[in-house]
Amino acid sequence: MRPGLAALLCFFSFVWLSDCAPPTCYSRAVSLSKEVMALLDKVHTYHRTKTCAEVLPTIFLDVHNSCITTKLRDFLYVVLNHPNQYCRERPRMVLLKRKIQNLYTIITRICYRDLVFFTDDCEAIDTGHSSPHYAEDRLQLLQEER
Fold first, then answer.
1. CA distance 118 to 124
2. Which residues is 119 bridged to in the sheet?
3. Any residues with CB less than 8 A from the CB of 141 and at least 6 apart, and which?
4. What is the DSSP string of the chain?
5. Among positive and negative, which fits the CA dihedral 95, 45, 65, 114?
6. Which pLDDT value is given to residue 134?
7. In this structure, are residues 111 and 26 in contact, taking their beta carbons and an 8 Å threshold?
8. 91, 126 contact by CB (below 8 A)
9. With a threshold of 0.90, does the pTM exceed it?
10. Around Cβ 43, how many Cβ atoms within 10 Å?
11. Buried (b) or exposed (e) across 68-104, using 16+ Cβ within 10 A?
12. How far are the Cα atoms of 48, 54, 72, 142, 144 from residue 101, in angstroms, in the given order?
């Protein structure tokens, strides 16, 4: 084999391997929360699980919100103890339960102290609307403008 071809083959194998880095706790929590939100949207729109979704509380996952642990725990309780046995056995509901359990475990055990919470607005998880919370530096800027 020629040296140029071997070097080119070696280069492309390193490029391929560099894309195989394991996810960090943060990236896994963010991607799993997006998966849960997409699955929740499917549960709410799919005709076989639409009636099951009526019992579920509304939730907007944000891994930067410190209230996510309590809200996930409460949501998981509702999913695990769904009043309808038919709903508990639906494949999408089972998948939703597993993903929420995984996300809760990642946030509370595996990534404990690795995640940084920027807000503690519990209402934002319920409504999806975050109310602005001015820090001291923002208040100081507002006072200086007057």
1. 13
2. 65
3. none
4. --HHHHHHHHHHHHHHHHTTPPPPHHHHHHHHHHHHHHHHHHHHHSTTTHHHHTTSPP----TTBTTHHHHHHHHHHHHHT-S-HHHHHSHHHHHHHHHHHHHHHIIIIITTTTS---B--HHHHHHS-PPP---HHHHHHHHHH-
5. positive
6. 53
7. yes
8. no
9. no
10. 21
11. beebbeebbeebeebeeeebeebebbeebeebbebbb
12. 23, 20, 9, 43, 47
pLDDT along the chain (146 residues), means of 10: 63 55 79 93 92 90 86 93 92 94 90 75 74 55 58
Q: Which residue has the tokens 């929740």?
A: 40
Name residue 39's amino acid.
L
Residue pointed to by tokens 């549960």: 43
Please state, in angstroms and rounded to a whole number, the distance separating the CA atoms of residues 36 and 99. 6
